[in-house]
Amino acid sequence: MMSDDLLAKLDALHEEDEYEEIVDTIMEIPAEDRDYVLISHLGRALSNLERYEEAIEQFLIIAAEGEDDPLWHYRMGLAYYYLEQYDNAQREFNIADTLEPGDEDTLEFLEWIRNKTVQKPIEDFPVELNPELITKFATDSDFANFWEDSEYAFEKYVMAPPTDDLIDSVQQELVFVLPAFYIQMMKVHNGGIPHNRIFPIVGATSEADAVTISAILGIGREKRNSLCGDLGSRHVIENGGYPEIGVVICECPSESGVVMLDYRSSGNDGEPEVVHVGKENHYKITMLAPNFEMFVRGLEKEVV
């Protein structure tokens, strides 16, 4: 049970922007003795320190108690927002708005998310896509309206179609030959956020047994979130401790896993399988599809 003196101290530290001291103070208390209020203070302090992933971890500990608390959902939404996980942020802010309608801060974040994710006509964006291949892909029902072309997607992921020289240099840097179908897709629309982002795991017994992606990385170096960008495949593997089995091809909303092209069976020049690697599950590798085309065609829309 938290004392009034401790609560007063935490409030005073918050007013003085002493967030590190808040974290240190609460972390000295055994985890089993931290209640809803203490963990809420801890999560808020971590967010103020821009340690958003750690903040979410703390908030999730009290998720059951926070279910009907608009402030809990607001704080979750804020952390997701600054992690650029806009779907998750919008969900939490919408719940907060339902529980406490009209809160100005909540409405402001929802407006910012709408501005970042609003779709615009293709001609309004600076990236020139490949019109001939777009027409070809448009005849395939699986790829009609495949991409969610928001301002955010074009800012972070979408690049001009790769030249053959760029494709060759990226493959040399990765030391893997990319799947032909993936290259064809990227020549149409080089990276981005698909409308369908859920891939059910074979043999799944519930909706929870599925992998969610947030984006498909494009071929290039121009965008940080591209195959050879600053935050691309090599960066994710080396900094996340992922196994050296191939290429990170898709980002996931959660920092606890990625979707990779797995070349262990095919060799560097073969047709790789598509797998999910779960960081928080001892880097468990789960096979999703025998090739990239089947993975893309198997993506489904999230059921809201």
Automatic annotation (TrEMBL):
SUPFAM superfamilies: SMI1/KNR4-like (SSF160631), TPR-like (SSF48452). Keywords: TPR repeat. Residues 161-298 form the Knr4/Smi1-like domain. The keyword Methyltransferase does not apply. Gene3D superfamilies: SMI1/KNR4-like, Tetratricopeptide repeat domain. It holds the Pfam family SUKH_6. TPR repeats lie at residues 70-103. This is Knr4/Smi1-like domain-containing protein. It comes from Paenibacillus pini JCM 16418. The lineage of its organism: Bacteria, Bacillati, Bacillota, Bacilli, Bacillales.
